[in-house]
Design brief:
single chain; 7 helices; about 30% helix
C-alpha cells in the first residue's frame, strides 16, 4: 500500500514561492488502478512525482508498506525506485544512440526479464525493433517508453498523461495492453490525466483542484480502453 500523510510541496523562492500541494493525505491499495484527475495546474503531476520519489515534499511522508521513502538517503531512494517503480511520461526519455530493442532491454535487465521482445511485439513495434528513436514517430517513441517501463516488471507503475502524444487508435492499444498486464501481474497503477474518459477505466479516482484533493471515489464498473470516449 502507498500512503501519503500530510504532504505539502512548494516551488520557487522569496516572493515567488507558492504552495503546490496542500496537506495531501491518501491511500492507494496494492494492485489498485488509481487515476489522479484534474485540470492543468491542479498539482496532479507534482503529487505523482512526490508519490514516486522523484521529488521530496517539504512536509509529510510517503510510505510504501512500512518504508517511509521521504526519509531515505539519495542512494537508497534511487535503489528503491530501481527495484520497485516504473515510469511512463509524456516525454519519452529514450537514449538516441540505442535502437528500440536496446532501449526496452534497459528496463528488462533491471528485472532479469528475458521476454522483453514479446512486449515490443505487443505494443506493435516488432518490425521496428532495430530502428533508432529519430527514425520513429512521436507515437512510436511513446510506445517504446511504455514497453521499457513494462519490461522492468514494476510493483508500481506511474504514468503522467501517457497518451498525450498518441492518436486514438494507438492510445487505446497502449492503454489496453497496460490494463491486460495489470490484470496478469497485479502491479499497482497510478496514472495522472486531465481526461475524464480515461478515469472511467480506473478502480479509484482521485480528483484534484488547486493543490488539494477535492474528491476520491470508486468506479463501480471499470470500462475498457475500447469502451471509453476519446
Amino acid at each position: 500500500m502507498i500512503e501519503a500523510k500530510g504532504i505539502t510541496k512548494f516551488y520557487g523562492n522569496g516572493e515567488s514561492r507558492f504552495q503546490v500541494l496542500k496537506n495531501i493525505s491518501l491511500k492507494i491499495e496494492d494492485g489498485d488502478f488509481a487515476v489522479i484527475l484534474g485540470a492543468s495546474g491542479s498539482g496532479k503531476s507534482t503529487l505523482l512525482n512526490v508519490l514516486s520519489g522523484l521529488e521530496t515534499p517539504e512536509g509529510g511522508g510517503v510510505i510504501y508498506d512500512k518504508t517511509d521513502i521521504t526519509g531515505l538517503s539519495d542512494s537508497m531512494l534511487t535503489r528503491f525506485r530501481r527495484e520497485n517503480i516504473g515510469f511512463i511520461f509524456q516525454q519519452y526519455y529514450l537514449l538516441p544512440d540505442m535502437d528500440v530493442a536496446r532501449n526496452v532491454k534497459m528496463g528488462a535487465d533491471l528485472a532479469s526479464n528475458k521476454e522483453y521482445k514479446e512486449i515490443i511485439e505487443a505494443v506493435g513495434l516488432g518490425e521496428k525493433q532495430h530502428k533508432y528513436p529519430a527514425e520513429l514517430s512521436g507515437g512510436e517513441q511513446q510506445r517504446v517508453s511504455v514497453a521499457r517501463a513494462l519490461a522492468k516488471r514494476p510493483k508500481v507503475l506511474f504514468l503522467d498523461e501517457p497518451t498525450g502524444a498518441l492518436d486514438e487508435q494507438t492510445g487505446r492499444q497502449v492503454l489496453d495492453y497496460i490494463c491486460r498486464l495489470h490484470e496478469e501481474y497485479g502491479f499497482t497503477i497510478v496514472m495522472v490525466t486531465h481526461n475524464q474518459n480515461i478515469a472511467e477505466m480506473a478502480d479509484t479516482v482521485i480528483r484534484m483542484n488547486s493543490g488539494k484533493i477535492s474528491d476520491i471515489y470508486t468506479n463501480k464498473v471499470q470500462k475498457s480502453a475500447y469502451e471509453i470516449g476519446w
